[in-house]
Amino acid sequence: MALRALLHGGHFSSTTNFDFGARSRDFGWSPETYGDQWNWYADAVRLAHELCSDDLIRAEIGPVVADASSNLLTNEPSREQYDTFIDMMLDHGPWIDGWRNIRHMQRYWVEGWPPELREYVTELELRLRPTDRASEIQAWVLSGHRAADLVDTTDDSESPTDRYQRAQDKARELGVASADDGEALYPLLPDLLSIEQGYEVALFGRGLAQASSSREQLWQTMVSEFEQIDRTKRNATLLGGFIAEAKDHDRALVERILDQSLVNELLQPHLFFFQMQAGFDEAGLGRIWTAIEQKVLESWRFGSLASGAVREFPEAELPKLLKLIASLEDGEVVAIQIFHMAVYCAKTDGETVSNELIQAGRDILSACDLSDRNAMNDHAAQEAIGYCYAEGQADDQLHALAEHIKAQFASEPYRAWQYQSAMTAIFKANPAIALDVFVVAGEADRKQIYGFDTSVRGSPIEVVPSDKLWNWADNDAETRYPLLGCILQPFPEK
Question: Rounded CA gap, 315 and 27, in Å?
Answer without folding.
Answer: 64
